[in-house]
Every structure is written in C-alpha cells, then in structure tokens.
Amino acid sequence: MNIQSLRGMPDLFPEDLKNWHILEDELSKLFTSFNCDEIRTPILESTDLFSRSVGGSSDIINKELYSFLDRNNESVSLRPEGSSGVVRAIIQKKQESERQKLWYQGQMFRYERPQKGRYRQFHQVGVEYLGYEQGMSEYELISMIVNINQSLGIEKYSIKINHLGSPEDKQDFCDALKSFLIPHEEGLHEKDRMRLSTNPLRVLDSKEESTKEILRNAPKYEDYISSEAKSFLGDLVDHYQDRCNIQIDSTLVRGLDYYTGIVFEVISEDLGAQDAYMGGGRYDNLSVQLGGKPMVAIGFAIGLERILELMTVKAAPHTIKVALIITLEHQDEKTYKIAHQLREANSEIILDAFLSNARLKSQLKRANKLNCDFAVIIGDEESNMNQVIWKDLSEHGDQKLLGIEDLLAVYKTL
Description:
By secondary structure, the chain is α+β, with helices and mostly antiparallel strands. The chain has two domains: 14-166 and 225-310, BirA Bifunctional Protein, domain 2, CATH 3.30.930.10; 321-412, Anticodon-binding domain (Rossmann fold), CATH 3.40.50.800. The chain is built from 15 helices and 16 strands. Strands 1-5-6-11-10-9-7-8 form an eight-stranded mixed β-sheet. It has a five-stranded mixed β-sheet with strand order 13-12-14-15-16, with helices on both faces. Strands 2-4-3 form a three-stranded antiparallel β-sheet. Strand 15 and strand 16 form a beta hairpin. The two termini are 50 Å apart. The model has no long low-confidence stretch (mean pLDDT 90).
C-alpha cells in the first residue's frame, strides 16, 4: 500500500506556491513599512507553555494539541499558535522591559476535523507589539489590518471588535452568564454544556443554532465593562468607519484564555462557515503567566490558507525564461561554464539548464511547455566552433548563430 500524507496536512506543489510567494512578499514589505522585525521560534515547545498560556479549559488543550513524550519523558507539543512561543522567547532573553514590534510566520498544528478552510497543519503569519499599552497600538494594528486587505485587493470584509474589560469585569460577566445558562443547560448543544462547566465565556463563541437561540436573552458583555472601555471601542469605530466596515460585537471573546482588553476578528462572507481569516487582541498578563516580568502586549494572526482564497493581487511582471539545451554526443565542460557565465551576466533571467542530451526536437517541445521565451542550443558543431544557437521561441521568432561574447552581450540586455 502506498504511503499517503496525513489527514489534514496537504502537500503544496510549485503551482500552488506561486500565490503563496506573492502573499508572503506583500506581507513582508508591509510589516517592514511599519518597522516590524521578524522573529522565528521553534515549531516544537514544552507542552506546559501552551497549557499555561492558551488555557486548560480550551479546546486546543483538551482535544487539539499534538503532544508526545520525548526520550527524557518530557511532554512536548507542536505549536498550535504563535504568540506563546514569541513571549516565551522574549522572557528567555530577558527582554520584557523592551518595546518591540515583531512578526513571525510558519506552520501551526491542531488536531481538528479537516474541512474547507481548516487543516491540521496550517500556516499563520502574526504580528506582536510587545511593551505597548492600550491606546495608539490598537489604532496602529487596525490600520495595519486595513493596509493588508488593501494591498491584497480584498474589498469585502468586516472587522469585529469587543473589549473584555479587566480581569474582575471578565469574572463578573462569567458568573452572570453561568447563572443565566444553568437553567437552560438541557437546551444547549452537548459541546456547549461542557464549555459551561469549564469556561462559560466560550459558550458565546458557539456556532450551534440551539445555543445561539438561548444566548439571545443572555447577559451582555457591554453591561459589565467600564465606560472607558466602551468609549475606547466607540472611538476606534468612529476613527475607521470611513475606511472599512468596523463594528462592535459584544459576543466576540476569541478562543484563547490569555486575551484581556480589546479583541478583534476580520471576517469575510466569501469564506463560508470558516469566515474569520485574521484575529487577535490584547494579552497584558501572558508574560507573568509564563513566569516572566509584567509586559503589556497586543497582536494578531493571519490564516494564510484562508486569506489566499480572498487575495486578488496580480502576479509579478513576467520574468524572462531561457532554456539551455545541450545536444552533445559527449559531455563538454564548456557548456557548464557557459551556463555559469550567463547567470553572472544577468541574474534577473531564469536560466533553466536542461541536464539532458535528448533529441533537439523533444527538448524544444519541453521548452515551449515550460513557457520559455528563448533557447540557447549547443550541439557538437556549435561546441567545436565555440558558438551557440540563440533561438527566439515566440510564434514567429528567428534564430541566429552567436559567439560566446555576443551571446553574453545579448543576454545582458534582456
């Protein structure tokens, strides 16, 4: 039996990666324009990192973490999200007192039921503003989100925001919500009944219609946060409502326990049921939870698989591609030297050296299939005269015999 890829962990072939490269380049340029520096953290971390940060009551910890014991009998896990690893790295380097704007990219892993827009191995790009208090940092990240959508040609999207208040506000609301839901427990979906006993706040995140119906009359989060928090949300909406569709959603809580203060999601109806493709919020207590010094922070992550479905950025201008075709009876080191000289002469050109001495007709057929613009052809006769054939592969293109110096001159001007 053939070995197959693991469920929910798709392969990405060259034709798939063209748009990935465009997306990654656009994001990298945009982050640089905001003076964000890249950080790279390990895919594998101590399981304790995620149980202390994401929260023991979360679905990620209870059902979705890829964990195993290493040879030292220590539990390690593939990362399910990126912020915890970034904060762990900052604590380890004793940089909690420094202000930093960082971004990361890479694979994440969650043992979920694969479906459209949801995979077990998926990719995220994230931004973390460390050491920045509530205020201008929220405005800057919303501005960044608007810029990302604009640069990727995404027009139909909405930004939902909410404020989770202080830890005391959060606890008061959780108590009120639990008191309301207990009498309606039998009407809740089974998954939400489990959430009620572990973390009632997560019931607000339910996608089940039976639960949503009960929640229509539930306490509202907005009644439990301060007037300053409400005012801050209102100011954000006022500031950005002429630039994007931004609205307050008092049911938005996000799925990770470390969030405090403002939380937000970016959604698009074009994605179907899994409509969120960006999300984040403030996590001022995470550093202390992980054993570090106090460090206020805010950030967000982008689901690359989902945003790729929305992206309408055009591919970069066509890059000229040249095929180097060798039809020699015997190997000739001079041909490899010519390839090296051509790449030195013009590094902007894609030179595809066909490492084969197959018949000329079949190699030209391959060059056309690969959309090559020109071909450099070297046969026994050309090699003996230190010349090559330069062939234009367009429909009415011509060909000519060139010496090596003339070839390099032509190649430089492409």
